[in-house]
Amino acid sequence: MSRVPRWTPSAKPAMSDIATYIELGFRHITDLKGADHILFLLALAAIYRFRDWRECVWVATAFTVGHSLTLGLAVTNVLNIRPALVEFLIPITIVATGLENLIARDQAKGSGTRRYRPVLAGVFGLVHGAGFANYLRSLFVDDIALPLFGFNVGIELGQICVLVLTFAAFTAVDRLIAAARLSSDGRAAPVRIRAVAVSCVVLFVATRWAVQRAPW
Amino acid sequence: MRCVATIVACVCAAIAVEARTAWTHPLHTTLTEIVLDSADGTMRLTIRAFADDFSAVVAKHAGRPRPADYNVPAGDIASYVASAVSVEDPSGKHAPLVWVGLRRTGDLMWITMRVPSVRSLRGVKLASTLLFENFDDQVNIVQSTYDGHRYSMLFTAGDGRKLKPIP
Question: Is the pLDDT score of B103 beyond 90?
Answer without folding.
Answer: yes
